[in-house]
Specification:
heterodimer; A: mainly alpha; 5 helices; elongated; B: mainly alpha
Chain lengths: 166, 201
């Protein structure tokens, strides 16, 4: 059955439009089919596109790698600085605790009139006073920071008491 | 590529004088295939071009179609005509292409499809006045617009019927649909074209 019979009895406009459509597709197809092929150009264009894609991909990968390496190096540097500071603080603290003992001879040297035994006594006394000051300080910190912890069953017992009274 | 004369000579030698050797059978098959490529290639290209509106893609898929046909030529038993067989391969390739574009949008399946106005520019230079040419172009553009709005299957059926001028039974064989379904698709497609021509889409 011819396709024209499909639209027989319908508007002539439809039939005409379908005919025009067919002839248009035929003309386009004939022209495209007989045109000179540009395979070489296409290959070049495709390879260029591929090269550009690879280059872009490489740049992105290198950038992200460089960023990651930078972050790692930065962290290592920060850790090194922190460790250095901590070491310095420790050294300063150690120096601080030993200072009274080390300072004492200097004060003793300044006072050349006092005898050596007295100097030793004064040094021991200073160490003791420093130690007792530290202990006092620690005790006061403990009393400030700590608070009485209830025993394990105390809240429950308290609750029971409350219920009982109610 | 050898001519048809050589083919008939080999055939004659094979049938009348001595049994065909494997080489001469292959020669015959190759010549037969070359003849089919020569005769059917423009139609396959035209169908793919109308379906895709992309000259480069239509050429590529036409090449792939005949490459696939060449690989499977030994399995072609001639149950259907060569044209039907080739058209079925072309339709499957086209389906694969659309599927790839939908599912794997990052792949390089960029389309160079021309817009409808450009596609409508093509008209044979008949003995028509400028006014008739304008009218014809307008009608072609409207049909393209309707075709664009069709589903993939409707478009295939429509193009096979109204561009390739295939019989309903052949369209049914190519698409794997029943004749009734083909008629239904055609009816819907024609309805769209009618609506577009009336301007009441």
């Amino acid at each position: 059955m011819n396709w024209e019979q499909d639209v027989a009895g319908e508007s002539p406009e439809l039939e005409q439009a379908l005919k025009h459509f067919k002839s248009s597709v035929d003309a386009w197809s004939d022209a495209a089919y007989s045109r000179p092929r540009t395979a070489a150009k296409l290959v070049v264009r495709h390879s260029r596109r591929m090269v550009a894609g690879w280059a872009l991909g490489c740049v992105v990968v290198m950038g992200s790698l460089a960023g990651a390496v930078g972050v790692v190096v930065h962290r290592q540097e920060m850790a090194r600085i922190a460790a250095q500071k901590a070491a310095e603080q420790r050294a300063a603290a150690a120096q601080g605790t030993t200072q009274p003992a080390s300072v004492q001879p200097v004060s003793a040297q300044s006072d050349k009139k006092t005898p050596a035994a007295t100097d030793r006594k004064v040094g021991v006394g200073a160490q003791d006073s420093a130690r007792s000051q530290d202990e006092d300080l620690l005790a006061s910190v403990d009393s400030d920071v700590s608070r009485q912890v209830p025993t394990a069953m105390e809240p429950l017992a308290q609750l029971m008491d409350d219920n009982g009274t109610q | 590529m050898r001519g048809r004369g050589a083919s008939t000579k080999v055939m004659a030698a094979g049938t009348a004088l001595e049994p065909l050797s494997a080489d001469s059978a292959e020669d015959i098959a190759a010549q037969e295939f070359a003849r089919i490529v020569e005769s059917h290639r423009p139609q396959i290209f035209r169908f793919l071009l109308a379906s895709l509106r992309d000259v480069d893609l239509a050429e590529t898929l036409t090449q792939e179609c005949f490459l696939k046909a060449h690989r499977n030529w030994s399995h072609f038993r001639g149950d259907s005509s060569a044209m039907t067989w080739l058209m079925r391969i072309a339709i499957n390739l086209q389906k694969d292409h659309w599927r790839n574009r939908r599912m794997q949008f990052w792949r390089q399946t960029r389309t160079n499809a021309v817009d409808l106005d450009e596609a409508s520019e093509w008209l044979p230079n008949g003995e028509r006045s400028a006014e008739q040419q304008m009218l014809a172009k307008e009608q072609v553009a409207q049909v393209w617009q309707a075709v664009k709005g069709l589903s993939e299957r409707q478009r295939t059926v429509f193009l096979l019927r109204y561009v390739e001028e295939r019989e309903l039974s052949e369209i049914a064989a190519v698409t794997g649909l029943s004749e009734g379904t083909v008629k239904a698709h055609l009816s819907r497609a024609l309805g769209r074209v009618r609506a577009e021509l009336r301007g009441t889409r």
